Amino acid sequence: MSLSKAKIGRTVGKAAVYLFLAVGALIMVYPILFIVMVSFFTPTEFNTLGVSFFPIAQEPTLANIQQLFFVNTDRYTLIYYFNSLFRTAYGTFFACLTSLLAGYVFGRLRFKGKNVLFLILLATQMLPGIMSIMPTFLELYRFPFAGGNSVFMGGHGLYNSYGVYILLNGGAINIMGTFLVKQNIEAIPPSMEEAAKVDGAGTPRLIFFIVFPLVRAVLAYVAITQAIGIWNDWQTPFYYTTSREYQTIASALSKLSSFAGQEGTQVNYPAMMTFSLMLTVPSAIIFLIFQKNIIEGLVSAGIKG
């Protein structure tokens, strides 16, 4: 009798856990489900009916959904896509590259003031990002050799040009990635590199052929998190560019949202919400596919560090 009660108790406990997880999953999925349902509305119908918990279009349209498959998309939508892809690929590549090189410098090389410099780099992570917006704006606006008017340099330095992305996403050191790579490199026996030096390997060969395979898990974590972060970043193009030719999906959506609801205009909320799917779906797919790599990278950094 007692065994039967224990079995019933375990069954009830499992059922309660599964019910709790199902409710949590529904809460997490509901915003995407709501956006998908709203995407079938026309602006007039949505603004007339208002918002309901489960909106169902009476006269559904595929005009908004077609944008997700590049059907009937305008020129600027394609530009937003290109800018987002270019910036994400460029920034992710340089985040991994600077993490590997800077991590090797701080993890292996010996020079005066190394620890102090590394602490200064870590200290910059404690500053709120909003504090750097105005100084960054002024530096981009007053960038040396200002006065050009090309895609790489605007009329005022690098402001409102691709130079914003090239400088901010390419020249900056990824500090968190540097920290993780440094921790891994310090746990690698120096004998491996010394043996390679005896065979005539130089520093570039040591970094890319000896060290790189050993810290690949951490760099995979850096690449995934950096790609998601850059793809979703709206602040950089929003604050440092004005032309539509330099906007990304995130910043274009932010600008549309900021001007929504102005007097005398009809806001196309279904199109805006469908546009947001272009932003959220790729990030969700990347996370679901590579979540194992994220965990492995953190575990590797934690064990070796």
Number of helical regions: 13
Distance between the termini: 52 Å
Uncertain runs are none
Q: How helical, in percent, are the residues?
A: 55-70%
Q: Give the overall pLDDT as a whole number.
A: 82
**H-E order:** HHHHHHHHHHHHH
Q: Round the Cα radius of gyration to an integer and report it.
A: 25 Å
**Percent of residues in β-strands:** under 5%
Principal-axis shape: flat
Q: Biggest sheet, open or closed, and with what strands and sense?
A: none
Question: Which descriptors apply to this entry?
Answer:
single chain; 305 residues; mainly alpha
Descriptive notes:
With 305 residues, the chain is an all-alpha fold. The chain has 13 helices and no strands. Helix 12 crosses helix 13. It is flat, with a radius of gyration of 25 Å. It starts with a helix and ends with a helix. The model has no long low-confidence stretch (mean pLDDT 82).
List strands and helices in order, with pairings:
Layout: H1 2-38, H2 43-49, H3 75-108, H4 114-123, H5 133-141, H6 163-168, H7 175-186, H8 190-198, H9 203-214, H10 216-232, H11 235-240, H12 249-258, H13 269-304
